[in-house]
Amino acid sequence: MTQRNQPDWILLAACVVLAIIGTAMIYSASSGYGAIRWSWGSGRVLGDHLLRLGVGTVAGVVAFLVPPKWLRASARPLFLVAASLLVFTIASQSVGSVNGAKRWISLAMFSLQPSELAKLALVLSLAWYLSRPDTRIQELSGLVPALWRVALMCGLIILQPNFSTASALLATSFAILLVAGMSWKHIGSLVAIGFVGMLGIMVLQPYRMARVEAFLHPEAHAQGSALQSLQSLIALGNGGVLGVGLGRGTAKLLHLPEPYTDTIFAVLGEEMGLLGTLAVMGLFALVAWRGLAVARTSADPFLRLLAAGLTTSICLWAALHAMVCVRMIPTTGLPMPFVSYGGSSLTFSMVSLGLLLNLSRHTTLLLDEPPPPRSAWSPDRTSSRTASRGRDVSTAIGRPAWR
Can you give the three-state secondary structure of the chain, one letter per residue? Predict the structure, then answer.
């Protein structure tokens, strides 16, 4: 019997505070924006968010209660389901699209974004494969099956197209491979191949190169591709150290595109100031610390890799969102986990939290229990049978039977 630990309460508290901050900022960012652009009431987006937060909480509780062995068993089926849904979004004409990108499947009152499911599926699949006893990650033959999983999932996401999510998922996969013990010669090769490949994909699509051009020369694209990043900087600068106060920001009033999703960090900086943004990033640093602590202390290889992958996914998405708002990288559409408005994103963030809390209870668990060592003082079955016939094995071979 493996003793269960208490769940990591610090990790849970950090994510709960992030969700509370996110709810407040979504209400602030959406009330004026929705009223001006769509004549919505001030509570419509907040009501939708609270409903989705409830759904995500239920999903997180389910993930918290799932036995770890079930997680490993679901790795391959979930990977196939996620890949099939991605193919469906690309091939079907009935899926939801924005600016030509097919990323959503409508399900009654909700919509599913398969790329969010793909994040979880790929992390589970890599953790399952790389933790197998027969996987030789130091050799190319052992690395190839992991790489085709990454290439398939990221390739399908790029075809939607969703380059930013694919890039972030590629980085998450790379982190899992590092934790699994990939050799340094393979690390250098994969970094070079990945960089050249992503650069080639960017060149093939003019709108991606336009974003890079706007990032390098924002003044020439102030009313176009650079509008989001420039307005984010203005909002952050306007907030100063202490901010203008919750609900009093002006950048959200049609200056910032998507103020309660893609640029919510800029709205936070204007209204809560530098201290508010540092507090949020500090909470994500706390999530990283506790999540990696779960990975470091897990006895089972599968659970260790899964915890590392989930933690990397949450914190990398948060870091990239913030980096876009401060113009450290070109504009992307990545949400900030637990803080940005969203359906699939929020739900799978809550699922990731539930899984991490689940894993934190089972750090001493081994999914494949090794056979108990044979006692040095216990005779084996052969010696017992021989002894019953009146003949001792130790006499026959000239040494004690327990050796």
Answer: CCCCCCCCHHHHHHHHHHHHHHHHHHHHHHHHHHHHHCCCCCCHHHHHHHHHHHHHHHHHHHHHHCCHHHHHHCHHHHHHHHHHHHHHHHHCCCCEEECCEEEEEEECCEEECHHHHHHHHHHHHHHHHHCCCCCCCCCHHHHHHHHHHHHHHHHHHHCCCCHHHHHHHHHHHHHHHHHHCCCHHHHHHHHHHHHHHHHHHHHHCHHHHHHHHHHHCHHHHCCCCCHHHHHHHHHHHHHCCCCCCCCCCCCCCCCCCCCCCCCHHHHHHHHHHHHHHHHHHHHHHHHHHHHHHHHHHCCCHHHHHHHHHHHHHHHHHHHHHHHHHCCCCCCCCCCCCCCCCCCHHHHHHHHHHHHHHHHHCCCCCCCCCCCCCCCCCCCCHHHHHHHHCCCCHHHHHCCCCCC
